[in-house]
């Protein structure tokens, strides 16, 4: 069982407030997640929620001291499951170690991008920003030459960490600087024209793509937002009309069961309609926060929409 499968297996009883069951699943499968920060997070927060104080501190210590992981202090401060241990001396000591590590590591990611260039010459570019807690190797398994045909596929890696080995685009200005650097290099190297570019994003990558478009730092006429996570959407509202002026066509997709991104996607589409931005919206039944189950089908649908002259 890999980490993703274990997270899903644990999350099902957690959603139903069967915390003891979720915790036991983690304990029974602990051998599978050495140095996995997400699973350790589940472990020490569940232990704390269940009032297993010694176990919660033990696993938090194991994560932060033994394996040198770290978590956003803002997250630790807001996580109510940690309230039973928050005021304990041992917790405060671990918290301070974690806080310093966050300061040292948050923006320490290496410059990295995965680029696929088809053997048959093409001037089409698919440039995609991954989602929260993702990395390019994972995204590459879904967005590759089997699903994205006749395109150079560029998948930049964020250089901002959400936690230990968990990437994010939370700092929009920093993320845009990173994305823009890769974008300009690819455009120059392959002599790509704006009309041949598809910009795409998943969850947190959406806010970087949107800001880049509105500030002309990422330019394209075709954009795909998959499960867009733009919590500060109101900050962009007065500029949404620029997408119409730029003649951008927007394809939005989200899962019907995505409690996190669906409300944002709905609001985003309302704004696109309000400002007469050319767009289409696809909601997939039975899908939560995840890539579409048939990525090629969704991409082909987006491509057909982009080619439609209306």
Question: Radius of gyration in whole Å, from Cα?
Answer: 21 Å
Q: Ends: how far apart?
A: 47 Å
Give the structural class: alpha/beta
Q: Portion of residues in helices? A: 40-55%
Strand content: 15-25%
Largest sheet: 7 strands, mixed
Number of helices: 12
Summarize model confidence as the mean pLDDT.
94
Tally of extended strands?
A: 9
pLDDT below 50 for ≥5 consecutive residues: which ranges? none
- The rough form would be described as elongated
Can you list the strand order of the major beta sheet? 1-3-2-6-7-8-9
H/E element sequence: HHHHHHEEHEEEHEHEHEHEH
Can you lay out the helices and strands and say which pair or pack?
Elements: H1 3-15, H2 19-28, H3 37-49, H4 53-66, H5 73-78, H6 89-105, E1 113-116, E2 125-129, H7 136-140, E3 152-156, E4 160-163, E5 166-168, H8 172-190, E6 197-203, H9 205-214, E7 222-228, H10 241-245, E8 249-255, H11 262-274, E9 279-284, H12 295-307
Parallel strand pairs: 2-3, 2-6, 6-7, 7-8, 8-9
Antiparallel strand pairs: 1-3, 4-5
Helix pairs in contact: 1-2, 2-3, 3-4, 4-6, 8-9
Description:
This protein has 310 residues and is of the alpha/beta class. The chain has helices at residues 3-15, 19-28, 37-49, 53-66, 73-78, 89-105, 136-140, 172-190, 205-214, 241-245, 262-274, 295-307; strands at 113-116, 125-129, 152-156, 160-163, 166-168, 197-203, 222-228, 249-255, 279-284. The strands form two sheets. The protein has a seven-stranded mixed β-sheet, with helices on both faces. A two-stranded antiparallel sheet has the order 4-5. A hairpin with a 2-residue loop joins strand 4 (160-163) and strand 5 (166-168). 39% of the residues are buried.
